[in-house]
Design brief:
The complex is a heterodimer of chains A (199) and B (216). Helix content of chain A is 63%, strand content 0%. With 199 residues, chain A is an all-alpha fold. In chain A, helix 1 packs parallel to helix 3 and helix 6 runs antiparallel to helix 7. The longest helix of chain A has 24 residues. The radius of gyration of chain A is 21 Å and the shape is elongated. The N terminus of chain A is likely disordered. Helix content of chain B is 32%, strand content 31%. The N and C termini of chain B lie far apart (45 Å). Chain B is globular, with a radius of gyration of 20 Å. The chains are: A mainly alpha (199), B alpha+beta (216). At the A-B interface, helix 1, helix 2, helix 3, helix 5 and helix 6 of A face helix 1, helix 2, helix 3, helix 4 and strand 6 of B.
């Protein structure tokens, strides 16, 4: 059963952000499908929003991109497919929308330290496990940094301290805190890249 | 780190949507780390109920338009297999029908979407000024942008940007090209009368097609 009702041999996939997957890879799970598009939306809007937030880091962009995913995905979507297949399709659409966002915003693809977590956002697994995993990855990177670099990133990114407060807590000037933060970010990026290359 | 990267990170930390710029790979990697750190700093926030309801209403309108246009097409006894699967494409088909039937461009027409809609249509041209597609704007509640293109043989993602008379991007979105063919449709919140031009480009920035509207 095809996930999309694309007429064969006539038109390309319309409005799809990715080509449909091979039909043979799809199957119907009748007891596990969505009754209507509203249920698709209600069941997945939170997941997709959290995915987008984790990949852009702010609410405004996460909302815009979540909306773009649904506007692009719902039209071509057929409902006589399993929830898993629908979620996989939504995730694939989300990845493409996200890639397009970063191309527009920075002219470059942006990679993340936890790309393998994408599927977890769409799973029914308890969310705290995902949060814990994300934090573990970040903690691994922070642990590889010198103490002052780790501290400034913890204060600014994990504890949301304003720069003045971070500077006060570290007993440095605001200007020094900014320099520390920027150097720490650069080193954290290198550590993240090395971790990705590690076996 | 460049000043623009610092500004991006500070805007991110402030919870704002950061300003874009043309980054190099090193800057993009650093921003990826900053985003990951920011996202790990607190449990992922829930989307607001207001946002979810607004989006739901928007999607419901999109689905209604798709259903209505599908009904209209059925009444015209078009074979089902010739129907475009995507709701957006169904709207494009009806919009095209309306545009041809009523020969409207910048005039009021009773379109098949069930209400009086203003349809503006313009050709998409390639670099040699050959017609390679069409772009249609339907004003309404919501307004729609409908585009189809057949240019070259590119397969993969492409972007469509619609700009005002000053070159500011009002609407953009992505779609897939298969062998050079693709289509794109979406509802928009902007005043479509302000749309003056459109570009279809590859992700690397290669211009595939462009169109120019007369601003109303």
């Amino acid at each position: 059963m095809a996930l999309f009702d694309t007429p064969p041999g006539e038109e390309p996939a319309i409005g799809l952000l990715e080509p449909p997957r091979p039909r043979t890879a799809l199957r119907v799970v009748e007891d596990d499908d969505y009754p209507d598009w509203e249920s698709v939306y209600r069941d997945n809007v939170d997941r997709l929003y959290r995915f987008m937030y984790a990949r852009v880091g702010n609410r405004a962009d996460a909302e815009d991109l979540t909306a773009e995913v649904f506007r692009s995905a719902l039209g071509p979507l057929r409902l006589d497919t399993s929830r898993g297949e629908v979620r996989a399709y939504l995730l694939q659409t989300a990845r493409t929308v996200l890639a397009s966002h970063w191309r527009r915003r920075l002219g470059q693809p942006v990679s993340f330290i936890d790309p393998d977590d994408d599927l977890e956002f769409m799973a029914d697994a308890p969310e705290p496990e995902l949060e814990t995993h994300k934090r573990d990855r970040v903690q691994l990177i922070l642990a590889a940094l010198p103490d002052r670099y780790r501290r400034i990133l913890e204060l600014r990114f994990l504890e949301s301290s304003p720069i003045k407060e971070a500077a006060r807590l570290m007993d440095v000037s605001v200007a020094n805190a900014k320099v520390l933060q920027h150097r720490a970010l650069q080193m954290a990026t290198k550590v993240a890249e090395e971790l990705e290359l590690a076996p | 780190m460049t000043r623009r990267t610092r500004r991006f990170v500070e805007q991110l930390l402030a919870g704002r949507s950061p300003d874009g710029f043309q980054a190099d790979p090193e800057e993009a990697a650093l921003i990826g780390t900053a985003v990951a750190l920011k996202a790990a700093g607190s449990p992922a926030p829930e989307p607001s109920e207001d946002f979810k309801e607004r989006l739901f209403e928007d999607l419901a309108a999109q689905q209604r338009v798709a259903a209505e246009t599908s009904n209209v097409v059925s009444l015209q006894r078009r074979p089902r297999r010739t129907l475009l699967a995507a709701a957006a494409a169904a709207v494009a088909l009806v919009a095209g029908t309306a545009a041809v039937t009523h020969a409207v461009t910048g005039q009021r027409a009773q379109s098949a979407i069930g209400h009086s809609a203003q349809v503006r249509e313009v050709a998409l041209l390639d670099a040699s000024h050959n017609r390679v597609g069409e772009l249609r704007l339907l004003s309404g509640h919501p307004s729609w942008i409908l585009m189809n293109v057949h240019v070259g043989s590119h397969t993969g993602p492409a972007n469509c940007e619609l700009q005002d008379a000053h070159g500011h991007v009002l609407v953009n979105g992505s779609f897939s090209l298969a062998g050079g063919s693709g289509a794109w449709a979406r509802t928009v919140a902007v005043n479509i009368d302000h749309i003056a031009g459109a570009h279809v480009v590859t992700p690397s920035g290669t211009l595939l097609a462009s169109a120019t509207f007369q601003v109303a």
